[in-house]
Amino acid sequence: MKRILITGAAGQIGTELVPALLERYDGATVVATDIKEPTGPLPEGARFERLDCTDAVACERVIQTHGIETIYHLAAILSASGEKAPQKTWHVNMDGTLAILEAARANGSAVFTPSSIAAFGLSTPPDPTPQDTIQRPTTMYGVTKVAGELLCDYYHARFGVDTRGLRYPGLISYVAPPGGGTTDWAVEIFHAALRDGRYTCWLGADTQLDMMYMPDALRAAMELMDAPAEDLVHRNAFNVTAMQLTPERLTAALREHIPSFEIVYEVDPVRQRIAESWPRRLDDTAAREEWGWAPTYDLAALVEDMLARLEERMAAGRGG
Residues 232-249: what's their mean pLDDT? Predict the structure, then answer.
């Protein structure tokens, strides 16, 4: 029986990873942790513990108490929010990762830590961005992601900790609200389209970024953790992608379902500058070759499913 711990379980990925793990691993114990209480009941088979991941003693206590075999370390402050509090972002993102890695080393646990397209910068080749290339990010969030990749590499090489990770593109989800990332527009636009029929976008119409639908993101993490260790070369920083979106391109796809949908642009210079420092398209050949990665959702499938799911949730919220 698998015993799994998630940090940041109340966040965008964690909210959906808890039930996904329970569905994938029959009989698993999933301990969901966060600094804040969950907003609703957890699925059967999951339990919640309040945990500050920067508290090394508390991390080791929880991992020992539950005999945790695998840790999904998701707790982090994201890109746009991180620029408002860079020192706090370093503390949460780096001290938290170090505390989890130390607890994993002491208890023989495997660790999944997500990285991001934010780990790249203006000097990185943007289209395609190679698996192995220069990384000079321009945000504190990006700096912590590069440092986190290296720290996980170190703990694997120095202490034999089974560390693995993905460089996620922007993630689109109908479940959890946006969490302060630069790609949040790609989630908000769906809500606005159904609620208001129009959206004010803070990125330029032709700003292209890599994106992925959350079901693919969850599956990628679990498939990587299940992959035979001997097949993995890169381990802690696999590029993964599914589609390349611009606000203009996503708007066109939405109008296939909502012809009257309108978009206007009020560009935020800070978030626009961040977006322009990130890849336009990742090369995920290494992930495809080393552990068989392949996305399920393209743009058309994403839009159709997102709208259907959000409509269901809105109807349920109205009581019918």
Answer: 96
Q: Among this protein's residues, is 141 annotated catalytic?
A: yes
Yes or no: say if 102 and 159 are a contact pair by the CB < 8 Å rule.
no
What's the pTM? 0.94
According to DSSP H, which parts of the chain are helical? 12-24, 56-66, 79-84, 86-90, 96-107, 140-159, 185-195, 214-226, 247-255, 269-276, 285-291, 299-318
Confirm whether 288 is domain-assigned.
no
**189 and 86 in a common domain:** no
My answer on whether 107 and 175 are in the same domain is no
pLDDT of residue 182: 82
Residue 101 has pLDDT above 80, yes or no: yes
Cα separation, 253 vs 221, in Å, equals 27
Instruction: Give pLDDT tens digits for 277-318.
Output: 999 999 999 999 999 999 999 999 999 999 999 999 988 877
Instruction: Please tell me which residue in 25, 72, 141, 213 is annotated as part of the active site.
Output: 141
Instruction: Answer yes or no: do 139 and 8 share one domain.
Output: yes
